[in-house]
Fold this protein.
Amino acid sequence: MNYNHLASVCIYCDLQNVLSIRQYIDQVLNFAKSPKVLISAKLYYNSSCKNQVSAQKALKRKFTCIDVPCHLKNTADNQLIAECIKDINNNKSLDVVIIVSGDGDFADLVGILKKLGKKVIIFAQRGNVKQKLKELADEFYFLEELPQLVVDKTEIKENDIQSQINYTDALEYLIQAIETALNKGKTTALGYINSMMRQLFPNYQDVSSICKPDGKKFAKFSKFVDAAVADGKVRMQNQKLFLIEADKLVM
């Protein structure tokens, strides 16, 4: 997996089912963009319904609004489903689909999307959601939860950024940890050195915080050590680490 890859996402909103979306539109969009790339946001409404027209006017700057002026049952739902499947077929790299509706008519669509390997997130209005839809979704939230949800995601993202260190810095931390352990007469076994790095350098949060030049991560601390050995930065013998410079001094 390329850790530089940002998931692409599309939003599909069934306005009739979630008229309260007007209060949470900015949070929905912020959620979709963090840390993802928003491809499109579509809203389906019926212009023959005054309450939907009023809501649509408030949302048209944020969404691509599709008018389905028909009194037949589920017409707007069917168009949303058809366009969602069409969008997926036209853009197979799409990763995430956000459906803003609690309507059980979308249960089959969720099943299709998941079979295609897409992550499905549902936002619904309290008191207007089918249990089956909640159970099928990869993630489910009520719209009322969005303000705190966006705050939580922002804090997590900031903490993740702060804890990332590049490979070059990680090598320096490794060398200093080995040197400290040797000076204290301690073991230089992998587990101890990993712990020493965490103690000496607060921004090192285990091997998962190391970002390689290609954007990928090390699966294990031992893999990071293998890379350091291959780069000639340290030496390993009997599962213990030694400094290259110390070897040169001995010679």
Notes: The chain has a mean pLDDT of 87.
